[in-house]
Amino acid sequence: MAGGFAIQHILIEGRPALVLTGELDLCVAEEFERALLAALAAREAGGDLALDMEKVDFFDSSGLHALLRGARVAAESDTCLCVLASPAVTRVFDLAGVNPRSVPAIRLRAR
């Protein structure tokens, strides 16, 4: 899916989750953030939110900022973002010097 981006809203065991594919860059970061905040609002109180980002082949700092803003909202409601990350996603965390363990609302698992 070169050059494209898609967000799929799914349910996993009755809980909302997002599946992201393609290139998450400045052009679509706002769309991602809106979808993330809507999914956080739709889930049950205290329930975690799964983000499958395994098929994100490009991820830049604007995507990271949107994810971290979502994590801040998640933390305010004792929610964890469970992120299944592609190498592109983990690379930006590394390049930006963001240790996922230092962001309590993010649980990052690399493939």
Automatic annotation (TrEMBL):
SUPFAM superfamilies: SpoIIaa-like
Domain (STAS) ranges: 18-111
Superkingdom per UniProt: Bacteria
Pfam families for the chain: STAS_2
InterPro entries listed in its UniProt record: MlaB-like_STAS, STAS_dom, STAS_dom_sf
PROSITE patterns: STAS
Gene3D superfamilies from the UniProt entry: STAS domain
UniProt protein name: STAS domain-containing protein
